[in-house]
Amino acid sequence: DNIVNQKVLKRALNVLGVKNVDIAENGRLAVEASERKQYDLIFMDVQMPVMDGLQATRIITQKCTGGDNARPKIVFLTAHALQEFHQKAAAVGGDGFISKPF
């Protein structure tokens, strides 16, 4: 997402007590981060440069096999409110949606 939305989300999570927040500037970096570190929750934007959120989610969920490599919950932050998008996101492993702006 853009830098302003990244800062707003990070600050909101900090207020809720979440101190360790990693931000990936694009889908490829999100996939790479998930390969280096196990996350419980990933907030995924849909429209990102290099690789979109749907493709990144598909890769992340396919690589998670359970055990030490448990699948994180992936929640999309999106302005896409159409049911068609929700179905596409669920098909690649999306667990939920938060509409922007929030």
Describe this structure in words.
The protein is built from 4 helices and 3 strands. The protein is of the alpha/beta class. The chain is globular.
List the helices and strands in order.
Answer: HHEHEHE
Structural class: alpha/beta
Helix content: 40-55%
Q: Any low-confidence stretches, pLDDT <50, length ≥5?
A: none
Strands side by side in the biggest sheet: 1-2-3
Question: What is the 3D form?
Answer: globular
Q: Given the structure, what is the number of helices?
A: 4
Sheet of most strands = 3 strands, parallel
Number of beta strands: 3
Distance between the termini: 13 Å
**Structural Rg:** 13 Å
Describe the secondary-structure layout.
Blueprint: H1 3-15, H2 27-36, E1 41-45, H3 53-63, E2 73-78, H4 83-91, E3 96-99
Helix pairs in contact: 2-3
